[in-house]
Every structure is written in C-alpha cells, then in structure tokens.
Records
---
Amino acid sequence: MTTNKTTTAQLFVKVPQYVEETTEGTTPTASPTFTACGPTSTLSLKIDGGFVEVGQLGAEDLIALVRGLQKFEVQIKTTLTNSTFLKYGFNAANYATPTGTVSATLSILFSFYLNGVENFCIIKGARCKQVQVDVEIGKPHEATFDFEAVNIITPITTANAGLTTPTFASTPSGTVWDHLSGGTGPVSWNSTAIDCKKFSITINRNTTPDYTLGTATPFSTQPHGRKIAGDFTNLYTLTTLDADFQAGTSRTLAVVLKTATSTITCTSAYIVNYTRDSDESSTDARIEQCNFKCLSATVT
C-alpha cells in the first residue's frame, strides 16, 4: 500500500520574486509583473508573536500570556547576475518618488509543493533593513538581504495566489557575477586601483516597524538613518592606505561588480581601523586589512 509523503522538498516552483507596491502592505492585484530576486541560495522567514508574560504576587505560575506586537522578518541570500534587486538596499530613501529606492515597499512572492500541491506565499510590505555584499577572489559575488515586512501570509493553494493575470518571473539564468567580472583592479581608492583580495560592505537602514493601538501587526515600516561600514583586504604593495588612515583623510572607494554595468561607490570613505601583520611561518604575501565607514553609498 502506498502512502502519501508529508515532507516538502527544498525546491521552489515560482522562485522568489518581487513587485513594487503602490499601497504599503498591499500586493498589486491587476496584472502585476514580477522580477526575480536573483539566484537564491537561502530564504528564511521569521515571525515573532511578541507575547508578554503576565505574573502576579503569590503565585508561581503566570496568570496570562498577552499577545504582543507581531514582527515579520525575512532573510534572502543571492548570488548576483544584476544589481536591480540590490538597489532596494543601497539607494537612499526618496519619499516623493520611491521607485527603485529603499522607500519602495515590495511584495515578495514564491511558491513550492506542499504535499504535492503548489502553495503560494507572499511577503507584504517588505522594506530592506540591512544588505551585505561580499566580493572575494575565487568566489561569486553574494548579497544577503534582511527585510522587515508588515505581513507574511500563510501559504495558500489558491491559483496564482489570487492575483489577476500576473506575469511571474522565470528561474534566473545567465552569467553569475564573480571575482573576474569587474575586470583587472576592480577595487579603487581615490580613483587608483588597489590589489584587493576581499571586499565586504554592509548597509544598515535601521528599518523598524510602527504600530497603532488595536492591532498586533505593523502599520508600516520606515528606515531611520543608515549606517554604512565594511572592510577590505589587499596585498601590501604601497603605503597610500596607511598614510590616509594616519591623516584621517576621506576618499572615494569604488568596487566594480560588473564592468560597464554595475559599480558600488562609497563617498567620503574613512579607514577607521588598519591592521598589517607579519608572520615568519606564513608563506602568504604581506597583506593589510582595513575597516572603513563612509557617509554615502550607491550602486548602479
């Protein structure tokens, strides 16, 4: 006798994909066109009920658990084939015209087979809280996104998640950007290429949910001032970085992700920590490690 399996494979039917919302927390229903987030390696959903423990004197056990403020968080890790999705974590807020910036909220959709039936899930009102980009020799470019959202629906079997004639994105294809995609000397300091081995940047938008009385779910989310920091490691071939660190001089730090296509530009970048180690037993070339902060960053 054959029995149905109750486990669900780690596969997507509709890959993680997004569409900008007109009204925060509301997925466009009239023929929305979705764009793939990129080749996704991990997707993590976290829903916190925020329950509050209520105790009383004279009793060991709690008298109640009061439902608190729900918090919806999502983490998506992708390899890069373009910088379209990346801009929602990088580009500065623009409240008047939010398109393509962190001000735009997204509906992120994906589907999977649950007990042999396709189920759809939509993350609504998603706004990037933090994004990290890692560039390293011998590896593909990776980006890790952390989102705050106003709701994550329970997976449903309704066809197309109830959307009217949506255009879904296909599985990403094409060339994955890697350590060779930016050409020779893709990392530059003050417009001069440096011999970089590894680069990482994190943009924290400090995005937090807002609530109103009478509801446990977020009313909205907004960024509250971004902080930009990162680090890079390169072969010690000149004293420029050491000198700029000692003098407290800011420079423009640029990283070409894909030649003639996409570049990260960090404006007014300061080296805040500088390390150079020597080890008699090491066969590696001498390197210098720099931690930096900057006033602004964009990606094209």
---
Amino acid sequence: MRDPIAWLFYLAAFIAAVLTVEGVWLLLRSTFGDRHLNRRLSMIRKTGDAGAALSLIADREGGPLSQRLDARFPAVRDTLWAARLKISSGRMLGVTLGLAVFLMLLFGLLDAPVPVALAGGALVGVGMPVLFVQFRAGARRKKFLEQFPNAIDLIARSLQAGHPAPVAIGVVAQQMSDPIGTEFGLVVDEMTYGVDRDQALRNLAERFPAPELMMFVASVQVTRETGGNLAEVFLKLSEVIRTKAQLRKKVMAISAEGRMSCLVVSALPVVVGGAILALRPGYYADVASDPLFWPMMICPPMLLLLGVWTIWRMVNFKY
C-alpha cells in the first residue's frame, strides 16, 4: 500500500509545484508586466513617439540581402511578420545556415557517416527554425481571424455613430489587443504620415494575407469608388466571417480523431526511442559501427514522415 500512496504524494507535490510557479509568474506579470493592450501602444508609451510602431515595418525590410530574398520569396517575409519575430529574411537565413553547419559538425563528432551528417544537419538545422516560425505564425494568424469579426463590428458601429473611416479604424487600434490592435494601429500610423487609406489597407493585407482581410479591404475600396452604406457592408461581412469560422470549427471537431492519431503516430517512435536510450544506452551504441546501422536508422524516420504527412493531408484541407 505504501507504493501507491507514495506515487500519489509525488503526483500531488508535482501539481503543487506547477501551480506555485504559475501563480508566482502571474503575480509578477500582473505587477511588473505591461498593462497596455497591444505592442504598438506599449511602444508609444515607452518612447513618447506616436509613430514609434512604424519601426516594426522598417525592421521587417532589413538590408539589401533581405530585400532580394523578400522579392523572390514573399511568403517567408509574411510568415516572419505573422510570427511577430523582430528578424528579417536575411537574418533568418543566417540562423538556419549556422544551425545546419553546427549540427553537421556535431553529427561528424559522433562518428556518423558524411552523407548522414550532411543530410541530418541540413534537415534538422533548416526544419527546426522553419517549424518554430510556422507554429508562431499560425497561432497569431488564428488569433487575428478570431478577433477580426469583432473588429469589423466595432468599425461598423463607429461609422454608424458618425465617425469617419480613419477614426473608426483608430478605435480598433486603441480598444483591441494584439495582434489585430497593433496591425490596425500600423494602418492608422501610415495614414497619419501621408499614406493613402487604400494603400495602407493594402499593406495590411500584404502583411496578413488572409481571404477575410482581403474581402474587408475590397469592401472599403469598392464603397469608396461607388458609394453605399459602408457600415451595413461591414455588418454583413462580419456575419459571413463568423459563419465561416463556425464551419471551420465544425471541420476541426469532425477531424479531431484523425489529428490525434497523427499526433500519436508521430510522437510514439520518438518517445520509445528516447526511453530506450535512457534505460539502456548501449542498445544502439553496440551496433553503431555496423555498416547497415545508419541506412537502417534513416529509412524508418523517412517512412514515418511520409505517413505523418499523408495523415495530416487527410485531416487538413481548405474550407
């Protein structure tokens, strides 16, 4: 009876430690953290310059190398911006190349064959930063789309109250949190410093190339040229976006089992391999010198990646 009681005690101690750390972190963040709604307002408060957030766009452009890379690979620039990383395309290229070279040398020190060291270093060195950036960009884009209908409603209500369109956009920048508060705030800053409203909105659509945002920008441009009740157009647009979001959530619920299967299939070999290395380190080391060892170790991960990719394509599709 002592063993189960001991395990329960250890589990309770672990949960208590986690909750304590989280409580301390929340207390420190609430006491010393930034109380402003979004990043743009925080920068304005710290610098006292109403256009301080425009430096984010300047940092995005980078030097000549980054500009050439952005011209050839605009998706990389947009993904870095969506991930909220203060890094240009050129610096991202340097990080990935440096990590790849480091891992190649590390695999070489572990007596791995030269082709394996080169392939493994290149794959992991490039794959890890790309996956990290894609994960952060996906999470921020998801939050942007969740906030977008409320932002459109706020703009529409402001227009109905008699405010002009630039002021209505400024209300979103002041009242809503990141990421949509900062993004619309940059639109306001660009208009303040002389950029045309349509061009500023097109710049926003380039930074966040989402179909819903492109519909919003097109609505503003068409209404400006042909006339009409812009507030009513925005209210209808927000209703359409909410309906699409509901459909997206239904698809996610239906495909939840497949996505969980993909997660289990991809994580199980890694967990089992790590457990074997931890419990019996010589299990692989004793046969590492065999000529067939590294070819046999390369084929299963490749087949695993192919299977994970196939499952992921089956449960993730356009809607």
